[in-house]
Every structure is written in structure tokens, then in C-alpha cells.
Amino acid sequence: MTTFNGFPRPDGRVGVRNHVAVIACEASVNAIVRKVAAETGAQPVTHDHDDYLAGPDAELVLRSLRGMANHPNAGAVVLVGLDDFTCSGIADGVNGKPFKVVSLANGGGARGAVDSAIEAVRDFTARLGGDVRVSTPVSELHVGLKCGGSDSMSGLSCNPALGAACDILVDYGGTAVLTETSGIYGAEFILAGRAVNPEVARRIYEIVDKVERDALALGMSLAQGNPSPGNIEGGLTTLAEKSLGTIKKCGSRPIQAVIAFGEEIRTKGVVIMDTPGLDVYSVAGPVSGGAQIEAFTTGRGSPLGAPLTPVQKIMGNPENYTRMSHNMDINAGTVITGERSLEQVGREIFNHWVAIANGALTKAERWGHTEYALPRSGTVL
Amino acid sequence: MGPHRVRPTKVGDGAVIVIASSASFNLFERPNGARGIRNHLAVVSTVVCSNVVATKIAQSLQAEVIAHDAGCLQLGQDRRRTVDLLVGIASSPNVGAALLVGLGCEQQPPETIVSAVRQKRLNHLTIQGSGGTSSAVDSGVEEARSLTASMTNTQMVPGTWSDLTVAFRVSDDLPETNSKISQAFGALVDFLAGLNATIIIAETWPFIAEPQFVADMFDDPQQRERWLSIADERATQLEDLGAAYALSHTSPPKHNTDGSTSGPLQRLGTRGLRGVLEYGEIPTGPGVWLMDSPREDLFVGAGLITAGTHVLIHGSTRPSLYSPPVLPVLKVAGSAKTYSAMPDVYDVDASVDLDMDAISQRILLSLEEVVAGAKTSSERWAGQELAIPRIGATL
């Protein structure tokens, strides 16, 4: 069995990084979190949800932020809020890892809160420095899947190559998490045909119906906002064509489950997470669910990263690989030029996951890309 | 020096608050005649994918950054709103030049937005066009430097209150907020409206439960009907979320037996309302306007800046850090505890043991200093927070 050296956590999961996470328990403190991260290198978790506990998105926000606190790639957590109460919902859910709550109510003003949080991060960082990586089977890896800025080559090169990598991972007992429900629109029947049982198939149709209803509530079909102008310029014609390419990312093995945005990833094999299609949200879903690595394919080129989870960039267009090479980890454009087969690039992607799991930095990590956002189920009132 | 002006204004309970202004200030003149109290370079991320690049560019020049979580895969009203707000923020009178930063493959690449921005020194770039994060940051910093250089000769002209749009908002309805802050804000609204300033009151929620009180303040029957329909729509949305949620998020205004008002209604002043504005709508002239605004502070800035607001006066007793880019916020604390817990966030303590004349005068003096160029606590803290409120679900 292939293994990697990771950081075992109290809840049994294994991290590939030993970060300190700084989490905004409410959007009001986003600026504090960003300032702490900028001064310490800790991973910032910010979002647009304030006073969410009484609202319709309470469950999603609480689940996702708890997920970030419990993320296997975080060795310790600093929770920031206006007062202790706003952090308690997240603090109560932390599974046995060290954490500290920094509240504005403790005095010292905004700068005082920044300084207390910096002190907490430095204290944790020093303590985590002694942790040792432990040999772990790759079956412990959960990899999120996303394609963003697709073009006509994505469905031929980077997406099926990523699918080949997923087949290797799943055959080892690992987990691949397909996302972006609006991106599987038009191809849902293929995924439903791969469902492990009728209930999973029903759930696949259900989440696609829901996203189409959300689109119609805005007065348009999903197919009217997608493909984007960039997709079209890149040669994609319809949303269904884009979707047929999208689903190739998850390889060919059975679909085991459909889970909610930010839900903890527990099932082995191929899992679908119901997330929005806009890149930052598609990535934030599995990241919140504990994915230790995110695989992101692109044809046009995207710099996006995430807090805590290394994001691996796989470029499917050989010319754009050259142009965007600073942001790209894998050149799947070699499939288009005929230099390599899908299987070869799939193996390269999988091997890179093992390297990332052992500590190799991705381009998104090197450039400090830590974008994160949580979706809304409806109007901001 | 500008003329010395003294105006008595009647507040809800029949008392009179007397405040005076002797301010004179110079404003930055824009090519279209608009006048700003700041001369910012704004680095506007047109899609969430370019937030990091825009932020790095802005930080290297201490410019304002406009970063948000939208800009692609949006439909209908949501898509229009995002474009309107990005155009509106770049067009702010407080912005002297803007650099728009996009990814390149998004729904509204920056070159499609640039043409709608009013009267600005502008430039734009995309990450894909530049060849990735580092080269986009490098060329962005270069562009930003030349934009900054081009702003240094911006002409300053003597200004008056009639050049300015001043917004008011409180973010909680605690008793301390509803007593002194509401009285002082109402007096200032009357005072500044009397000097032909444009006033935007960025609050909807306190007035939803009993919209009739506000409806009675509109002279124009069309505006009155418009308000009632907005209030009705918001009330229905609240109902859909459940009664408990609705109860915890509206605080009905109180009407005293003598016909005067207390609580939130006091903040609207006594001169009547000229009209109601949709979120982000630009007022058509001076007077007091009520803007349909989200409950959470985080979402208010984009709408106010787009409406042309120069400065926001913000009152709260529950601690608030809210600090948007481009828009100076003058923060008024409702309690000494709040003020002393966050002296680096608040500007004025309204709980001091003074009469309402003195408290209102103190806020006005701070406002005059801010208009003349003094930084608010919020500007020094530079939270640079901005969010675009969604109309439908995130797709």
C-alpha cells in the first residue's frame, strides 16, 4: 500500500499540514483575522455571515466553521469573535485539539484583539513545532475535485486525467469528492447510473433539481448564465457539454453518497458534495468537510487557493500552461500535444498528491492564496 | 471660513436641540463636477478569483481594496447588482482613480465594466492576460503607481454641505442606542438637511413592523407607496423565515401619547422624507432619503458608496468594527463601556453626561473634521470590508 507521512489528529483523521487556523466566528471580525494571518502566516478563515444563528443558513455556516476548526490540516485553532458567546457554537464542537478564543469583549480594542490572537498563534506554532509525521496509508486521503475556468480542452485532458488519478486513489481505499452541482447539470443521469443504490441516485437528481429551481427563482435557467464568456471563448458550446467534461474528474468508480456543503467526509470511494459552482464555494465545501487536498483543473487558468487545504492546479491547455505556469502544478496539456497518455498524467497527479501529503508545497500555497467563502440559500435580508 | 450657521431643531419629545456649524472645507473636484472628501486609489477586484491579487496590489501602495465573493456564475438580478455595485464603487466621488482587476474568463471581465465607470482615471488588467499571480501583481503595482501619480494634481475647491451626501445608520436597537444616539442623529439630519446636504438613512428593518409611521413622513404619495411596497416585501420575506426570526429582528417604533416619537423614528428627523431609495440607488437631489438596506453592516457599504455617499455616521452600543473601503465611517458609541473597550474603533462617546445640544454638537464637530480630511478611527483601522448582498441563492 502507498503511504504518506501525516499528522494524526485526536478524532482519527490525519492531516497533511500542521497549520494554525484563525477563524472568524462572525463576519464582523474578518479584518482582525486577515491582519493576524498577514502578520503570522496562520491560515485565515473569513466569510460574509454575521448574526447567522437565527437565520436560514445557520446550520450550513456552523457546520462549515466547525469543520474548519476540526480540519485535519489544522494542529491548533484560534477563534475570533465580538464576544465569547459568538464563538461558543464553534468552540463547543472542537474535537480535542488545542484552541483559544479571542474576544473583543476582553478589552484592548481592535488592535488588542489582533495582538492577543497573534500571541496565541505564536504560542501554538511553537508547540506544534515538535509534532512528528507518522506513516499513513493513502486510504486516509480525502481529495476535493473542482474545475474552474474550463475550455474546450478541459473535458479531453485535465478532467479525465484527474479521473484516472481518482480511480487509483479510490482503488487504494481513499475518497474523491466531486462538487459544483450546477456544473453537473445536464450530465446528472450519467452519475445517477453510477450510484451505488437507488437512494443515492434519487439524491443526485434531487440536488440538480434544487439548483435549477434556485436559478429559475432569479428568472433564468441555469444554462443562461453558463457557460461563462470565458468558457465560450475557450470553445465550449453549451452547459451540457461543459457538464459532460466536468463529471470526468471523478473517474469511473461507483458513487457512494451525496453529502451537504461542508459536511464531514466519512464515506470511502467517490462522493458528491452539493456545492455551488462558483469556484471559491466549490472549493470551500470539501475543504470545510475535511479534504486534506483539493485538485483543481483549469483550461483558462485560475490562481485560487484555500485556507488549510493545499490546492493543486492541473492545466489542460498546453499554451495556457506556458502562460500561467507560475500558478500551475501539473501540465495535462501534454495529453493534447500527444506527448503523454491520460493514464500517465493521471499517475503523475496521484503521485503529486502523495508528495503534497508528505509536505510538498503547491503553487497556490506558495503565492499565499487562501480564498474562502460560504454560500447563501437566498436573499440577504 | 464658511458662514456661521446655527439651527435649532425640534426633536421627538418636543425639546429643541441647538447646534452650530462654522466649518469650511475644500473638496476634491472630479471631471464630471462631483466633489469628494477623499482622493483614493481604488483597486477593484471584479471577481472573487482576483481578490488576492487586488489585495496585494492595494497593500503595496496603501490603496483601498474592493474585494468580495461574487462576480461569476450569477444570473438575472444578482448579476446586474454585482456590476452596478462595482461600477458604483469605482465611480465614488471619494475615488480619484481606479484599477480594475479581473481573472479573465469571468462573466463580466473588467474591460466590460470600465466603460460604465463615470469620469475617472482608470485602468484594468486580468490575471490570465498578465500570466498569473506574480506578474499580475507586478504589472498591477506599476499601473497603480502611475494612477496615483496622475491623481496628485487633483484640484481642490471650497465646498459646502450641499456638495455632500451624508449617511446615517445604527446597527442595534439597545436602549442606549435608542435614547441619545437616536436623538442626536435626528437633530443632525434636520440640521444638515437644512443646509441642503443630501441625507441617506440606511435602515429598513426597524420600520418594517409598522411601516405606516414612516409612510406618513413622505410628502410625495408615489414615494409613500413605494416605501409601503418595499416594507411589505421585506415583511413577507421575514415571515417566510419564521415568526421567531421575525420577532428577534424587528423592533417596532414607539409612538408617544402626545404624538411625538421615540426610538428609531427619531433618527429620521422632523423635516419629512423626500423619497425612498433601493439599495445602491443614487438620490436625485438634496433632502432626506430612506435607503432599503440589509440588516448586517457588512452589506451596507457597497450600496451607500454606489449611491454616492461621502461619509457614514454609524451608531451602536453593541461593539461594531465595521470599516469599509472608500467610505469614511464616523463611529458613535452608545455606552461608555463600548467606547472604552474599543477606543481605536469609535470616534465619539454619546453616553457622556452632557445635554443633547452638546452631544449633537460634538458629533457635528467630528464630522466637520472628517469632511476636512481628518481620518476617522475606522480609516486608521482600515478593515477594508465589503460584501455584495445576494438576491437569490449562491449558484
Structural summary, described in words:
The complex is a heterodimer of chains A (381) and B (395). Chain A is of the alpha/beta class. Chain A is 38% helix and 18% strand. In chain A, helix 1 crosses helix 4. The model of chain A has no long low-confidence stretch (mean pLDDT 95). Chain B is of the alpha/beta class and 395 residues long. Chain B is 36% helix and 21% strand. Chain B contains 13 helices and 18 strands. In chain B, the strands form 5 sheets. Chain B has a 7-stranded parallel β-sheet. The model of chain B has no long low-confidence stretch (mean pLDDT 90). The chains are: A alpha/beta (381), B alpha/beta (395). The interface between A and B is large, with 71 and 67 residues.
Overall strand count of chain B: 18
Q: Helix amount of chain A, in percent?
A: 25-40%
Major beta-sheet overview of chain A? 7 strands, parallel
Low-confidence stretches of chain A: none
Helix count from the secondary structure assignment of chain A: 14
What global shape of chain B is seen? globular
Please estimate the helix content of chain B.
25-40%
